[in-house]
Amino acid sequence: MPRTRRKVYLAGPISNCNEWQKCAWREQLIDRWSREFELIDPTPLVQASAGPLEVVLSDLRAIQGSDAV
User: Fold this and answer.
1) Nearest-CA neighbor of 55 among 46, 65, 44?
2) Mean pLDDT by 10-residue block, N- to C-terminus, for the chain (69 residues)?
3) How far, in Å, CA of 26 to CA of 39, rounded?
């Protein structure tokens, strides 16, 4: 049976921060570990949302569906 990849939510700064604090470190982790883990980057969810409530709800769903944060 093939081993399933664990889901990891990449929690960290999204607003009131610079581009590295928001995206670059996540991209580095995804580049390095995406073969071994399913890494969930919340930044596209935030950028596509219509408001704060949508952000919170999408984050909660993503976190609840993850194996680690």
Assistant:
1) 46
2) 84 87 93 96 78 86 95
3) 9
